Amino acid sequence: MATKLSQEELLAQFETLTLIELSEFVKAFEEKFDVTAAAAVAVAGPAGPAAVEAVEEQDEFDVILTGAGEKKIQVIKVVRELTSLGLKEAKDLVDGAPKPVLEKVTKEAAEKAAESLKAAGAGVEVK
């Protein structure tokens, strides 16, 4: 009867294999147990899919008005320029801060909008 090897012993055995031999072993393992090594690696990853998403660069940003500041009328004008809102809707948005002004825009558009709002005296946050 075969003796059971510990993980350390198995790893020691794998260290002695060449890449070709290890590749052949993985193929045989996949066939014998009807699994794929790619799925096993994804499950065994440090944090799973969340880690992959965190590494990807963000490409959609939200511009959030955190406060109108002292020049509320100027901020309302800028909000109207950035959005297609009417005067009443823009005023309600500014009065109800913190609220998103633009959602899911490019980084450049978000930075430009934030600069415009800051120049008008508003408090702005880009997420």
Characterise this structure:
By secondary structure, the chain is α+β, with helices and mostly antiparallel strands. The chain has seven helices and three strands, in the order H-H-H-H-E-H-H-E-H-E. A three-stranded antiparallel β-sheet has the order 2-1-3, covered by helices on one side. Helix 5 (about 70-80) crosses helix 6 (about 85-95). Residues about 40-45 have low confidence and may be disordered.
Label this structure with key terms.
127 residues; alpha+beta; three-stranded antiparallel beta sheet
General shape: rod-shaped
The order of strands across the largest sheet is 2-1-3
Q: State the low-pLDDT regions, or none.
A: 40-45
Number of helices: 7
Radius of gyration: 28 Å
Overall pLDDT level: 80
Note the beta-strand portion: 5-15%
Largest sheet: 3 strands, antiparallel
Q: What structural category characterises the helix and strand content?
A: alpha+beta
* Overall strand count: 3
Element string (H = helix, E = strand): HHHHEHHEHE
Helical fraction equals 55-70%
The end-to-end span amounts to 62 Å
